[in-house]
Specification:
With about 220 residues, the protein is α/β, with parallel strands linked by helices. Helix content is about 55%, strand content about 15%. α2 runs parallel beside α3, α8 packs across α10 and α9 crosses α10.
Amino acid sequence: MEVKIILADDHQIVRQGLRTLLERETDIRVVAEAQDGRAAVRLAKELAPDVVIMDIAMPDLNGIDATRLIMAEAPRTKVIGLSMFADRRFVVNMLKAGASGYLLKDCAFEELARSIRVVMANKTYLSPDITDLVIQDFFAGAPGEKSVFSVLTAREREVLQLMAEGRSTSQIANHLHVSVKTIETHRSQVMHKLNLHTVAELTKYAIREGMTSLE
């Protein structure tokens, strides 16, 4: 059976490299590429791929929220997180969003190919180092620690990410097809919930939470 793949990463050279390697496999075909999370969601809905290889920190919509939307729009699609982040918060939130696997970008290609076949067998695949993080989270947890994915609503996270990426209130309103007043309300709610009061503070927070990067 041929496995249809969508590659979602904001770096073209990464997507091209992965496509070249994946298409050497006789049972894998890359059907599309996405350079941001929102495009990944749209393509997953349109093409119904078997697997989406998803970067975590992408522009417009981060990989965690994109995964959550894909699970709602195309629940049969498997998502594998592929990221440079080994932080426990990112791994756990990606899995909570519905991902079936999580790999680090420094893994060998053979591990990525293996992970695709594992999730296609309806199992979960985690890199060995990631497994340790998940086990630690299960047994110890982090009392009192709250992530952006538990504190803010999905729309508030969208607004926060777009603010952190330098978009103005009017640009965000146009992008999300809502009024400027609505965005101002969301912005105030975000600042209140996070107890942050400047765009600079919000940007640092968004980067720390893996919603966006310095690039």
